[in-house]
Amino acid sequence: MKQIAIFASGAGSNATKIIEHFAALKKNSDAAGTIALIVCNKPDAGVLKVAAANQVPALVIEKEKFFRGNAYIDELNAANIDFIVLAGFLWKIPDTLIKAFHRKMINIHPALLPKYGGKGMYGQFVHEAVITNKDKESGITIHYVDEVYDHGQIILQATCLVADDDTAATLANKVQALEHRHFPAAVALLATL
């Protein structure tokens, strides 16, 4: 059974949905993995409350060790982590960690990559760019993590229409609904590989 770590920086809505999905699979004896650790870079982030509420151990990381140390690989190994899920984690992943978890780390991006990816393109910034460019659709991209921001091999994309009267906020709601619908199932499927 795969031991999964979720890396998140914010409120943890995707982490919540993934934890709930795995709990439901476990009840039906269908789980191929377990959410074993929440890793967060902000000591006041809501995702830490999600971890506590679901009795999932949490690790709060700091920048110096993450980027100039061993990227917390020792702690991940000590927790027997096999697979990493980036769910709204806002730091670039160091090459050391990417190499240690090659094709065992995925990310979700709130746009249809390769459009609107790269440094600084997250959350509202992505949705504002989609609205400004008058795109007719947006969506999510789940992809493997490599050394370039929002670049790794695409695993799944799901789309939603962008209405003429959509704002960044209304589009964010549509995209989040896609995240919550598709991300937990994708994580569970990848845990079986």
Q: What can you tell me about this protein's structure?
A:
The protein has 193 residues and is of the alpha/beta class. The protein has a single domain (2-114, 141-154, 180-190), classed as Rossmann fold. It has helices spanning 13-27, 46-53, 63-68, 73-78, 95-100, 123-132, 168-190, and strands at 2-8, 33-40, 58-60, 83-86, 105-109, 137-144, 154-161. Strands 3-2-1-4-5-6-7 form a seven-stranded mixed sheet, with helices on one face. It is globular and about 50 Å long.
Which key terms come to mind for this protein?
193 residues; alpha/beta; Rossmann fold; 7-stranded mixed beta sheet; 7 helices; 7 strands; 22% strand; globular
Which fold does the CATH topology refer to? Rossmann fold
The N- and C-terminal alpha carbons lie at a distance of: 11 Å
CATH H-level name... which superfamily? Formyl transferase, N-terminal domain
CATH class: Alpha Beta
Described by strand count, sense and barrel closure, the largest sheet is:
7 strands, mixed
Helix content: 25-40%
In the CATH classification, which architecture applies? 3-Layer(aba) Sandwich
Structural class: alpha/beta
Low-confidence region ranges = none
What's the number of extended β-strand segments? 7
What is the strand arrangement across the widest sheet?
3-2-1-4-5-6-7
